[in-house]
Amino acid sequence: MELERGSLPKDLISEPSPSLPKDFPSELIPKNICEVEFFDLIRCTYQDGSQMTCPKEFKKFLECKRERDLKLFNALQKWEIQRVKDHNPAMQQMYKQGLQNKINRLTEAVSVMPTNFWYLHKRQRYETDIEQLQWRLFNLNKYV
To answer: What pTM value is reported for the model?
Structure first.
């Protein structure tokens, strides 16, 4: 992505953030969730009124978001590995199977989802969730 040119609305969703499990502890979520950088970007875009604007603000937001997401992925990995290690082998296997079932359900949903424009964001979100679940399952199989 070319940061010098600024941002388009589609650029803001081109790198989806992690999907967190419902019981992921909120204290492990980074304190800076990039809201200041996001509001600076929105404010600049609103003031300029153009479709491709604010390269400096866009770059700051994107860098903040990437750093935040990396911290989230690291925290998620450590938390989940420890959480599953604390269970007996049967529960560990059941947890892993639950992740595999989610992958299968999302894969099935994507396979029957219309390919038109109206489903583009939903399709991207599902595909990203599938990748993240596969990453989580890979880590659990490797470390637990």
So the answer is: 0.81
